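Need a sequence for this fold. Nothing fancy.
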């Protein structure tokens, strides 16, 4: 993979024509105040397309967040039409409409080597979706299709579902944030009865009622979703206004299914009753690997039952319980689960209003657990005392690879504990301390620890109170460090200082 500075698209075009060993090319616009000046327009696209038409080495092309519109899409699509090496094309957020979708569809009808097409965050609407659907009837190569945020209504959804009944190549489909309602769900249900190839389906629909006036899937829509004979291994039903009634409908599928690996029910209103239903399903399910229950209004009792169900579970590897505000009591039950479960690898507990007491519960669990690799405690209230309880157990832990303490009221008082972790833990690779209250004083202690650390690859100190002096300490501490690959230490300035 080559990193190419976008100084001259003409030179880039020449490079592509000469077939240098570039296999992945990112030309995504930088998100900054002067973003319009960083976007690739039709002139730049013309150069890229000219190079792409002759290139035989490029495998992935990322053009997201630019300004290529329908005209630019036409050029890229026609260049890809005769290209037999490109495997992934990402052109999301480019103001592409139905005309651009039509050109991409024409390419899909003749190009069978492209595996991934991402045109999310555009505006292809029903007309464009119907063009893509028509192409899927002929295409036998595409495996991943992302159509998120494209203002597609029932007419377009119906055509897509119909096309997929006979398609035997697509395994990944995301139509999230479109007009997915009960009628659309019926279409997908009919498709899933016949399609035995599709494995990953995202039907999440956040905020769409406000955007285009459609209703959400809701509990009634879930009732219409026939899943028993599908080949789905991953199902995303986030933010569909589902309650415990909808969960009860899914329970048979979750209990009896032996291929479903990932289930996302986040941002719904499952509450305690829904959590109890899920806990019961977990006890008999032997395939679920990833379970996401973020922001589901689950209370402490609901968390307790889920934790108890996972204690002896031997398949679940990822559990996300973010934003349920379970507090220290909820952390206690999660900690008890960790003490007995030796399968879970990833645990995310961000934004749960936990304090020092909750941190202490997790610390005790870490002492006994030797399998957890990724722990996210961000956006809680751990503070100095909580970090002081966690530090010795994390220092001695030999399984954790990633820790996230973002926004936890951590100050310089905790710097010594953080330094101890960096010095003595020889497995930790990623440490996130973003958005805390560490100053140059704390940064100096962390910097001293970095001199003797040979495993940490990522350190995030952004949005702290580290001034120029602290940044110098950290950079000096890295002089002999040959392991750290990524450092975030952006300095905070007031608006007045920034203007100066």
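Here you go.
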């Amino acid at each position: 993979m080559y990193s190419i500075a976008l100084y001259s698209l003409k030179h880039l075009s020449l490079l592509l024509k000469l077939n240098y060993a570039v296999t992945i090319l990112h030309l995504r616009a930088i998100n900054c105040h002067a973003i319009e000046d960083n976007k690739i327009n039709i002139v730049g696209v013309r150069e890229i397309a000219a190079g792409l038409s002759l290139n035989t080495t490029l495998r992935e092309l990322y053009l997201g967040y630019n300004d290529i519109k329908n005209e630019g899409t036409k050029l890229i699509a026609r260049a890809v039409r005769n290209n037999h090496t490109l495997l992934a094309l990402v052109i999301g957020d480019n103001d592409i409409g139905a005309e651009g979708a039509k050109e991409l569809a024409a390419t899909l009808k003749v190009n069978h080597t492209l595996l991934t097409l991402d045109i999310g965050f555009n505006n292809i609407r029903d007309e464009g979706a119907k063009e893509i659907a028509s192409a899927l009837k002929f295409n036998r190569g595409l495996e991943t299709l992302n159509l998120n945020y494209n203002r597609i209504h029932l007419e377009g959804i119906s055509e897509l579902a119909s096309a997929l009944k006979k398609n035997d190549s697509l395994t990944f489909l995301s139509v999230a944030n479109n007009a997915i309602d009960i009628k659309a769900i019926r279409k997908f249900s009919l498709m899933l009865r016949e399609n035995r190839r599709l494995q990953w389906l995202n039907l999440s629909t956040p905020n769409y009622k406000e955007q285009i006036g459609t209703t959400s899937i809701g509990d009634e829509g879930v009732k219409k979703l026939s899943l028993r004979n599908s080949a789905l291994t991953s199902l995303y039903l986030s933010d569909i206004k589902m309650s415990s009634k909808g969960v009860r409908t899914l329970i048979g599928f979750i209990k009896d299914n032996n291929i479903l690996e990932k289930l996302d029910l986040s941002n719904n209103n499952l509450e305690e009753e829904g959590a109890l239903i899920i806990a019961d399903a977990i006890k008999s399910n032997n395939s679920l690997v990833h379970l996401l229950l973020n922001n589901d209004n689950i209370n402490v009792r609901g968390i307790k039952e889920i934790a108890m169900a996972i204690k002896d579970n031997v398949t679940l590897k990822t559990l996300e319980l973010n934003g349920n505000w379970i507090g220290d009591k909820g952390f206690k039950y999660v900690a008890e689960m960790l003490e007995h479960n030796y399968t879970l690898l990833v645990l995310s507990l961000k934004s749960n209003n936990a304090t020092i007491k909750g941190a202490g519960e997790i610390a005790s669990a870490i002492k006994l657990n030797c399998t957890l690799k990724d722990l996210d405690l961000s956006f809680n209230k751990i503070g100095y005392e909580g970090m002081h309880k966690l530090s010795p157990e994390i220092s001695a832990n030999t399984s954790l690879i990633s820790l996230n303490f973002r926004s936890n009221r951590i100050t310089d008082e905790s710097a010594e504990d953080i330094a101890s972790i960096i010095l003595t833990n020889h497995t930790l690779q990623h440490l996130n301390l973003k958005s805390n209250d560490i100053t140059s004083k704390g940064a100096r202690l962390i910097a001293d620890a970095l001199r003797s650390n040979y495993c940490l690859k990522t350190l995030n100190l952004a949005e702290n109170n580290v001034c120029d002096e602290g940044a110098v300490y950290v950079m000096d501490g890295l002089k002999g460090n040959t392991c750290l690959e990524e450092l975030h230490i952006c300095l905070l300035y007031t608006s007045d200082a920034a203007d100066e």
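For context: The longest strand covers residues 24-26.
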